[in-house]
Amino acid sequence: MRNKWLLIFGFVSLVTLIACSNNNKANNGEWTPEEQIEILAPAGAGSGWDTTARMVTKIFEEEGMIEQDIGVVNKPGGGGAVGWAYVAEKAGNPHHLFIASPPLIDVPLNGQSQYDHTDFTPIANVIADYGAFAVRADSKWKNLNDLFEDMKEDPSSVTIVGASSPGSMDHIQFVKIAKEAGVDIKKIKYVSEQDGGTLTALLNGSVDVYSTGVAETIEQAKAGKIKVLGVTSEERLEGEVISEYPTVKEQGIDSNFVNWRGFFAPPNIDGNAVDYYVSKFKELNESDEWKEIRKQYGWDEMFMYGEEYKDFLDEQQEEAKQLLDELGVLKNK
User: Fold this and answer.
1) Which of 11, 116, 173, 209 makes an SS bond possible with 257, Cβ 3.0 to 4.6 Å?
2) Which N-terminal residues, if any, form the signal peptide (predicted)?
3) How far apart are CA 263 and CA 162, in angstroms?
4) Residue 24 pLDDT > 90, yes or no?
């Protein structure tokens, strides 16, 4: 009987000790994930969101930056809206993250989602990607000026295809550059192909120009099937194939477009969890392994968090409002 009571006393003491330890962790402002972390890519496999999420997860796990298991899941639909609705339901749960970029600003403004960046918890921006405008290798257009000269005469004679919805990123990045070149942007013919058929449409002649991200052009440019007329970065990018892509600016068009990509959490998560994730993304950003990934995909460093990130997102929203209003597709003002 005496041994039984000693065992019970020992067990109670151990539970108390663990509870005190956990309380001390909370009091010290520390937080670590207690279950698998889910990172959502609100698009299909192979998309820019998906690729970035998987590369981040790869470094986190292989370099031991995060010990807890991480799973990447895809929830395509609505230009991102399906995924955002899913994350919004996880309010207060710090074991969920999602990757986002300009569509989180654009899609709500054009009325296709009830959620925008203000409905979530910004963690950190990690990269800057850029737009690329590609045509078939045998296209008559040798550069953007050739293309825009034809479009200035008749904007609707050229069909642009992109993977994002009308009024979202692939559409907006093309429109922004075309506007600076003097094209009547209200008459531009844009086709949205969200089921992975963008490149097929370009190669079979159904459309004329493919508005996409730089990384999505590399393999086809290597194979000699497409040529890139211009990219939206300030300066030429470094890397195999992409270093040959001319910038918009070097063709005399004074404009650019940055496809920022960052990570968000559900609304109302604990500040200690935010601090944890920010510290991990800082570690990622400073690692040599991540620098190699950026180089491989032609991504630039664009690391932000906290108030700087929030202010940046608000500024992006104001800029998008003006352009969407001019296009006549602004719904949420």
Assistant:
1) 173
2) 1-21
3) 23
4) no
Burial class (CB in 10 A: 0-12, 13-18, 19+), 284: buried
Task: Please check whether residue 68 is in contact with residue 35, taking contact to mean a CB–CB distance below 8 angstroms.
Answer: yes
pLDDT at 2 over 70: no
Comparison of pLDDT for 193 and 201, the residue scoring more: 201
How sure is the predictor about 7, in pLDDT bands with cuts at 50, 70 and 90?
A: very low
CA within 13 Å, CB half, 3: 0
| Residue found under tokens 């459309």 | 207
74-87 pLDDT tens trace: 999 888 999 999 99
Tokens of 65: 């930056």
Asked if residue 142 belongs to a domain, the reply is: yes
CA dihedral 156, 162, 166, 168 (to 10 degrees): -130
- CATH assignment of the domain containing 152: 3.40.190.10
Which residues fall within 8 angstroms of residue 214, CB to CB, at 6 or more apart?
129, 130, 131, 132, 231, 233, 237, 242, 245, 297, 298
Q: pLDDT at position 333, please?
A: 67
CA distance 300 to 36: 29
| DSSP label of 331 | -
Average pLDDT, the chain: 90
Q: Does residue 323 lie in a domain region? A: yes
Compute the Cα dihedral for 149, 154, 158, 164 and give only its sign: positive
Contact (Cβ atoms closer than 8 angstroms) between residue 219 and residue 89? no
Note the residue count of the chain.
333
Domain boundary among the residues 257, 272, 289 is at 257
Provide the domain limits for residue 173.
Answer: 130-257
Cα 143 to the chain's mean position, in Å? Answer: 27
Burial 288-304 (b: 16+ CB within 10 A, else e): eebeebbeebbbbebbb
- Does this model's pTM top 0.85? My answer is no
Task: State how many domains the chain has.
Answer: 2
For the segment 49-73, the average pLDDT, to the nearest whole number, is 97
Same domain, 148 and 245: yes
Instruction: Identify the domain boundary among 257, 285, 304.
Output: 257
